[in-house]
Design goal:
The protein is α/β, with parallel strands linked by helices. The protein is built from 26 helices and 22 strands. The structure holds phosphoenolpyruvate and magnesium ion.
């Protein structure tokens, strides 16, 4: 009998294994039964299971055919013998004459001398090899491809059954490395500030063992084929999309297409389904094999391809689950773990239970990071190897302050985090008490504290934070979290909601600030040498006036007779502002001609971010109704230091004479011409920096919601005139950063900065 036929003929083998594992016996007896079942079914004289100890050694755990005395005695060091070779490669080894293989290590205690044919497959879980399943025969023969595939399916079922933990108690297998279980600390990059402690929820959840089997292989096969066809059509459609709008860079899609139409990939999936797995389990099986194979690749190109494949698998799983996939039920205090998140993924989770987010990849400008900040959920990204190191249900700490993740933290770490969380909560409560207190300095200057926003979810923070309006609404966020270009209606709807939420409070809408680090997944972009200096923001808007006019139209419609403030990003010349303003005028008269209600008041302003404007404020300011200083970009351009590059981003201190003099110059020019001015970069939300801005004479600051409380506390404790004198004095003749001096000044003046 051919082994493959045995499995295909009766899918009962997988059932028998499952039943053996579910029986009321000690773990050892279960594994002994399993090897007997497999040996009989595959007509193998030997079947053995090796599992990995925490030390990395591979230990013979159960065998049918080898000497029973070798069980728990035979151990292979990492990389030793054929078993070590399989662990290293993460893929099957099929040999007709095993002793002739250079990696063969002879172990007399096993009595394996007479066996020549050898087939070993790794037990994979989450892309990690946790053990090896081996069958051997006396005769010199190579196992058929189908037999290899069958053994892989058995191995997958086995590793899921063992790894899920419910069938063999963790205690029974003591220090077996079935799942990572030691405390680990990973260093990443801070995407959103804050602290969280909770339970790991895997975004790409593995298929649960009890959903792995199907009694109706034909039905599963049909489901699989439908899903694959839909996937192929989707990818082909993306590629043929034309109009410059595609779902991902072209070469990535090409790779997708290659995989999606790959016969090997499809056949692997179909085989798995035919043997009795559900379509979902089949996807997981093929996925874990790819992970193990490509994950170890040194070649970055190959590793990239693995990401493409992961994505493809996720897409296929989504097609299988159908569009009506219900939202996942989260435990209380959920910490979401993902490789990366797509545009709308994070918003699909129940926010009341989501405490933190850990990402293996991403960037601070990625969708997930933007949404996490908007939701005030701490997020650490770029944690390499994260997904293989964490199990669903593990306890996890997200430390957004130090950009670290603690997996299965020790009790003392949890205690330390809990007390830091307590301190943060107390401070938050203090700030909440100030919510309705207007921000006057001790000497009576009113400082207007506004909030930066960009998504509908931000609006809830408006009152909670105690802000007096929205000083910067980043309209591009709606575009960045969408699957496709938001149409006029969607834009109008969002802007209308923002104005509704703000009520009488002012809102400054900034027109699309795309390009640079903010790219749209569905818009083809040319790779630029220097994106920060490239085709972005208002430059793009002026070159694509249809896009900008559509947005202005949406803003005018949304205002419906209310006051409207529009601001243009990265204006670099007076002519640009003039041209942008002309588009607004055109839209206003277009709306008038159609009898639409005009805004009760329309203010059009510019962001001061390009240093060139500093020497042309005399021409710019009379043309604008207001300006706002975008210090994030202004500093990047002043110091010629990429704000997104951690090597240089913090190299230059905005609290230093060149930056502060530039800011003072802007403030003075605005004061001289009576032009309203605010500062809306991140520095406005940091108390010491905000203290300095107030000292320089700025009276409106717009910041992330979390900054409003601390900055208000600073303002209430500040004597502006004393601060002004102090900062003026210490700027004279200062060499580099004056941060230390400003700190001392604030302390001397009893300012809470
Ligand atoms: C800035 O540059 O300071 C700013 C507020 O705009 P963004 O951070 O969106 O570029
Ligand atoms: Mg900017």
């Amino acid at each position: 009998m051919v082994a493959g036929v045995a499995i295909r003929g009766s899918r009962s083998l997988l059932r028998q294994i499952r039943e053996a594992m579910a029986s009321q016996q000690p773990a050892q007896a279960k594994l002994d039964m399993v090897v007997r079942i497999i040996a009989a079914s595959m007509v193998a004289e030997v079947c053995s299971i090796y599992l990995r100890r925490a030390s990395g050694d591979m230990e013979l755990f159960a065998t049918e055919g080898l000497d029973a005395k070798a069980v728990h005695v035979t151990r292979m060091k990492p990389g030793e013998g054929l078993v070590g070779e399989i662990m290293r490669l993460g893929r099957p080894l099929n040999l007709s004459d095993a002793p002739a293989h250079p990696a063969f290590a002879y172990r007399p205690e096993t009595g394996e001398d007479p066996y020549h044919a050898f087939l070993g497959v790794p037990l994979l879980r989450g892309g990690r090899a946790i053990g090896v399943l081996v069958v051997q025969n006396r005769t010199e023969r190579a196992y058929e491809d189908e037999e290899v595939e069958d053994l892989q399916i058995i191995a997958m079922v086995l590793s899921e059954l063992v790894g899920a933990g419910g069938l063999i108690g963790a205690g029974e297998l003591k220090d077996i490395e079935i799942a990572p279980h030691r405390p680990e600390r990973l260093k990443g990059a801070r995407f959103a500030d804050g602290l969280a402690y909770g339970v790991a929820v895997l975004h790409e959840a593995p298929v649960a063992p009890d959903e792995m089997f199907s009694d109706d292989a034909l039905a599963e096969d049909a489901r699989l084929k439908t899903a694959i066809a839909a996937l192929q059509a989707q990818i082909d459609g993306m590629l043929d999309g034309g109009q410059g709008l595609v779902g991902a860079p072209y070469e990535v899609l090409e790779t997708y297409r290659l995989f999606a139409h790959d016969r090997g990939w499809n056949r692997g999936l179909e085989e798995a389904v035919r043997s009795g797995l559900t379509a979902e389990a089949a996807v997981e099986r093929v996925r874990s094999e790819h992970r193990a194979r490509l994950g170890q690749a040194r070649d970055p190109y190959l590793r990239e391809r693995l990401h493409d494949l992961e994505d493809l698998n996720d897409r296929l799983l989504r097609h299988l689950s159908g569009d009506g996939a219900v939202a996942r039920v989260l435990p209380e205090n959920a910490i979401l773990i993902a490789r990366n998140l797509g545009p709308a993924d994070l918003l699909e989770y129940d926010r009341t239970k989501l405490r933190g987010l850990l990402l293996e990849e991403g960037s601070p400008a990625s969708h997930a990071a933007i949404v996490a900040r908007a939701l005030d959920i701490p997020c650490v990204g770029r944690l390499s190897g994260l997904r293989d190191r964490v199990n669903e249900g593990d306890s996890v700490v997200v430390d957004g302050e130090s950009a670290e993740a603690y997996l299965r933290p020790r009790a003392d770490v949890v205690t330390a985090i809990a007390s830091r969380m307590e301190v943060r909560a107390q401070r938050k409560a203090e700030f909440a008490r100030l919510r309705d207190t207007p921000a006057f300095t001790r000497d009576g200057a009113k400082i207007t504290l506004l909030m930066n926003a960009g998504l509908a979810v931000d609006l809830e923070m408006l009152r909670e934070a105690g802000a007096e309006g929205i000083g910067l609404f980043r309209t591009e966020f709606q575009f960045m979290v969408a699957e496709q270009m938001p149409r006029l209606e969607a834009q109008t709807e969002l802007y209308g909601r923002v104005l509704d939420a703000a009520g009488a409070m002012p809102v400054t809408f900034r027109t699309l600030d795309l390009g640079g680090d903010k790219l749209l997944p569905y818009m083809e972009a040319e790779r630029e040498e220097n994106p920060a200096l490239g085709w972005r923001a208002v430059r793009m808007g002026l070159d694509r006036p249809a896009l900008l006019r559509l947005q202005i139209r949406a803003l005018l419609w949304a205002a419906k007779g209310r006051a409207l403030r529009i601001m243009f990003p990265l204006v670099s010349s007076v002519d640009e502002f003039r041209a942008a303003r002309a588009l607004v005028d055109q839209e206003v008269s277009w709306a008038q001609r159609r009898g639409r209600v005009a805004p009760s008041r329309l203010d059009v302003g510019a962001m001061v971010e390009a240093p060139a404007l500093l020497w042309h404020l005399d021409a710019l300011l009379p043309m604008t109704d207001f300006v706002s200083v975008g210090t994030n970009d202004l500093m990047q351009y002043l110091f010629a230091a990429d704000r997104g590059n951690p090597r240089v981003a913090d190299r230059y201190d905005p609290l230093s004479p060149p930056a502060l003099r530039a800011l003072k110059q802007i403030q003075q020019a605005c004061a001289d011409t009576g032009t309203p001015v605010s500062v809306c970069g991140e520095m406005a939300g940091r108390p010491l920096e905000a203290f300095t801005l107030v000292a320089l004479g700025f009276e409106a600051l717009s910041m992330p919601p979390a900054g409003v409380g601390p900055v208000k506390q600073m303002v209430l404790s500040c004597d502006r005139e004393a601060a002004r004198r102090g900062v003026e004095a210490l700027l004279k003749g200062a060499a580099g950063s004056v941060r230390g001096e400003i700190e001392t000044l604030a302390r001397k003046l009893y300012v809470a900065a």
